[in-house]
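Bumping with the actual sequence this time:
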Amino acid sequence: MKRVRLAAVSIILSAALSACSFAPRYATPQTAPAPQAYQGSADWKPAQPADAQYRGQWWENFGDPELNALEARVTAANQNLKAAFARLQQARAQTRIARAAYFPTITAGPSVTRARTSLNSPTYNNTKPQTGNDFVLDADLSYEIDVWGRVRNSVASARASEQASAADLATLDLSTHAELASDFFQLRSQDAQQELLDSTVVAYGQALELTQSLYDGGAGLLSDVDQAKAQLETARTQAADMRLNRAQSAHAIAVLLGESATTFTISPRPLPVATLPPPFDPGLPSALLERRPDVAAAERRVAAANSQIGVARAAYFPVFSLLGAIGFESTTAGSWITAPSRMWSIGPSAIVTALDGGLHRAQAAQAHAAYDEQVADYRNTVLTAYQEVEDNLSALHDLELESISESAAVVATAAVLEQAQYRYEGGETTYLEVVTAENAALAARLAAANIQLRRMTASVLLVKALGGGWHNP
């Protein structure tokens, strides 16, 4: 009964003491107050989409079946996502490792030894045989009593780190899908520009033939022929360079899909001129922090660092443990597992560091500095989130205006080129005027295609900046 009372008192005492924790009370770090509305959307009101929250497969809003098919393959095939998932699995295992300290550790190990005692040993007893056997079968128990919250704070830190790893995976998933969409639209824009340059090469070749015929008939100048040749070769160079850029874009898509760039192919399909980015409602700035997984990851790392402060503080105090052993010991195998061979022991222990040369103080300072670092990273992540939304809202607004003016420039340069060709064919001007007009028309059409690509890319980046399909748990 005395032993039972002693064990009960020990359990009650350990439970009472384990309520203590030296971790600071955690609160999400304060950031700058969220504005009422985004500055970039002050004078631009987009149409309201059907799914205002953009949950799930946000890329379907672009209405491109081929893009949807590619996006559906990314999550299962992308190697970076597989690596991030493996890191999440490691973080989950680390949480289970930390949680194991909640329970006692029990080890069991039978041993059979035969030994000879030295006659000169201080433990030699001349009443016992010099050589003998020792049969042992015991189980040892050790349990750290979490008086100062070291174990609980370690588990809390590991759990917060696990949640940060999950948010990192969501961030990478969002970034990968956005990168694929950007690369896809870049590829389709390059197809459109390639088609334009190829047709330009054909037109410049016909112009060279005409100029050569006029020169051969005595109605043209040799300098006109040289200018036509130079213009044709320049266009061919641009076309070849565009083919190179297109190939590199296809290779980038292949890597995102987890395929070899050597065997991956995607058929050319120019991006239609009438393609416009879908309307996206940015919502309220106050909701941004709930939707971005990178913000969630940064906040969870602050929580993990806060718990580590408690772990560092607990190192100043004694470590209380409960130790016990039970088993059998005998000098002969016949009496090994019998009642007289029983043995047991149980009792508390405490370990305190008397002198460590400032180790614990340095560890506590390191934990506080790590917390400050994570707080600064969290606040910077929040500021970056607002910046990215504002950047892409402004880009969509300004690029829409640029698209209108560039479309007018395409029409105007086409009219100038038509008049210059008539004048040259009528012998009223030199070929230099035609060359100038053709270069201006080509530059305007290429600029219009580039603006269209930038609008599509800004739309993708806006979805990414808003958190994409992130669900707040």
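The tokens above came from a reply further down the thread. Residues 161 and 377 are 15 Å apart (CA to CA).
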